[in-house]
């Protein structure tokens, strides 16, 4: 046997094989049995940090810059925009709500250039974060890698934002003095947070779409001249 990352890889033997912390062996019923050998790392994320992270992810998806700054600061980070790009592991265009799961060539070049040119600042951001957040970054990177390897079949940004909203809703319900332990009450509160997020997201997308159409119409009629930045927005 030999070690690989946090798990164990074993050579083929008569009764079992070991791979990535899982032991596969024949059970008493003659069927395959899985035994978890290595749980990996554990970290506790405080309620305040968890709430800030949930709200930050929601604000990034909605392009709420004021909220992005506030919740980044709650996590100890001043350079909020850099932190948000690190968290999503992709460039953020504040004038565009959509986020592609696979980076374009230009986006990949931007991220590589940013990592090289702002390495010291990136390290300062990581040092400013609560220690458990480093494991959060690692897990996010794992999810990203798996999604890309599978051809990006899901919108991981939207799914993680919805998960963050649900988590925030449940946390709020738990802290409420009104029947905090009633399952139905928690479900209703979480559902309401989901609805508010979806409405806010669709509202922002509709407003941007209407704005785009108006600008295109004005440009077509020769009423306004659009510069390069506006053309990029229209794309």
Automatic annotation (TrEMBL):
It holds the Pfam family ABC1. Residues 30-71 form the ABC1 atypical kinase-like domain. Transmembrane segments: none annotated. This is ABC1 atypical kinase-like domain-containing protein. It comes from Bagarius yarrelli. The lineage of its organism: Eukaryota, Metazoa, Chordata, Craniata, Vertebrata.
